[in-house]
Amino acid sequence: MKIIKAKDYNDMSRKAANVISAQVIMKPGCVLGLATGSTPIGTYAQLVEWYQKGDLDFSEVTTVNLDEYKGLPRDNDQSYYYFMNHHLFSKVNVDPARTFLPDGMEPDSGKACSDYNKVIADAGGIDLQLLGLGHNGHIGFNEPSDVFEAGTHCVDLTESTIKANQRFFASIEEVPRQAYTMGIQTIMQAKKVLVVVSGEDKAAIVKEAFFGPITPRVQASVLQLHSDVTVVADEAALSLI
Ligand code: F6R
Q1: Which pLDDT does position 72 carry in this prediction?
Q2: For residue 67, how far is its CA from the centre of ligand 1 (angstroms)?
Q3: Range of the domain at 71
Q4: Between 33 and which of 71, 129, 134, 179 could a Cys-Cys bridge form, CB atoms 3.0 to 4.6 Å apart?
Q5: Per the domain annotation, does 240 fall within a domain?
Q6: Which residues pair with 215 in a beta bridge?
Q7: Atom of ligand 1 nearest to the CA of 202
């Protein structure tokens, strides 16, 4: 595991965008695994800026996102599709037909998950997976558990995740209770993993996940077993290690 220390959020965003742009330049037809959440917003903004300058071309790239809420339509401004479209897809020349997220509107969880596993397999697997880190160590929506789930699955969100997401909805009742997420095996099969982390409030979980025991209670700890992980974190997030 390589840990790259960034000065602050902007520096983290630039460094992470550099890693992603190197991937796209080296393999224009690569498969990027993408994440939502606050942390990668600056990374996407940087990629958009470099695209606008003519330094990046996404025309052959395929993207597969980590997760999507179950029951939110794509045009709901809290859906992860909406987020990705707003922050990246509509601002670069990625082919919309090659941008994939789990289908949140598929009510049959078994079908939604097996369809998404097939999308990832048909794309040839993930070259570079971008991850944020939850305060409880979750990656995607793989919440603390007794097991590491393999493929895409439907999760009941924990109370703490529902509360953390409440700020984006009019009321807590509107926060979806379930989501579809890529599994840990799929994430671990990505050729490279890039984790972005920012802020003092993540310092304890950075220490636990990357320097503590490997356990499904802290799902990100499994990344210690991956052979090509880069963590780009700012000084605040690294303050306890
Ligand atoms: C996002 C995702 C989540 C977030 C994590 C950190 O697709 O799957 O695991 O990466 O909750 O979120 P932020 O970046 O908002 O702290």
Answers
A1: 92
A2: 10
A3: 2-234
A4: 129
A5: no
A6: 218
A7: 16
